[in-house]
Amino acid sequence: MYIPEHFSLPRERALELLGGARAGDLITVTPDGLTATFVPMLLQDGDRLLGHLSRVNPQWQYPGEALFIVNGPHDYIDAAWLSRPDAVSVSTWNYVTVHAHGELIVHDDPQWCLDAVRRMSQAHGDDTVSGMTTDDVDRKLRAIVGVELRITRLEAKAKMSQNKSPEVIEQVIAGLADAGSVEAAEWMRDNSLPRAQAKAELLAGIRRQAGTAR
Question: What is the pTM of this model?
């Protein structure tokens, strides 16, 4: 993934976003080329993702190199929201995304799958499995195959106008809020705006020091 330095997110933030995601795209290589499944996966210990695939989905038959992608807030950014008196702006798209690269391991052991299903369910506040009969559990487990992505590399990017001035960012936040894109507006208010304000204050301090030194 192409990541300019000013849009890069640290590993800690990437793990936070990955752990908070409910599902994402699991992409693997098969003899017929790339294939993808949108699937929930659960982050464990900061270095692996647990999940399962339907047994009739052939993707599980091709373990090895894999990529899991989760996306955060994203939306269209109108050129008018980016406008400044001294420059012409064009529309763009703001987004947050995390790419977890690694090795996909397949687990066809019922106990491993049961443990993964329990962890996933409990993470969402659901303990239905505990109330099922042994026969029902066994029947459900026969229909799935466990998968584990052992993470070897994380890439995270937030292109959320944080390289703009605080004034422009506030315009974008207002535009998103008016358009009903509450999640993207809140992300920018909590992340992009403080960063831009800190940068503006730093630059203003440098200019003041330079003026005093003359």
Answer: 0.90
Q: What is the mean pLDDT of residues 38-62?
A: 97
pLDDT per residue as tens digits for the range 160-179: 999 999 999 999 999 999 99
Which residue, among 11, 13, 2, has the nearest Cα to 151 in the 3D structure? 11
Are the beta carbons of 121 and 110 closer than 8 angstroms? no
Contact, 143 vs 57, CB < 8 A? no
**pLDDT at 207 (0 to 100):** 81
Distance between CA atoms of residues 150 and 58, nearest Å: 20
Question: For residue range 134-158, what is the model confidence (pLDDT) as tens digits?
Answer: 999 999 999 999 999 999 999 999 9
Q: Tell me: pLDDT of 87 over 80.
A: no
Q: Are 37 and 51 in contact (CB under 8 A)?
A: no
d(CA 91, CA 77): 6
Q: Which two tokens stand for residue 68?
A: 């899991």
- Cα separation, 92 vs 90, whole angstroms: 7
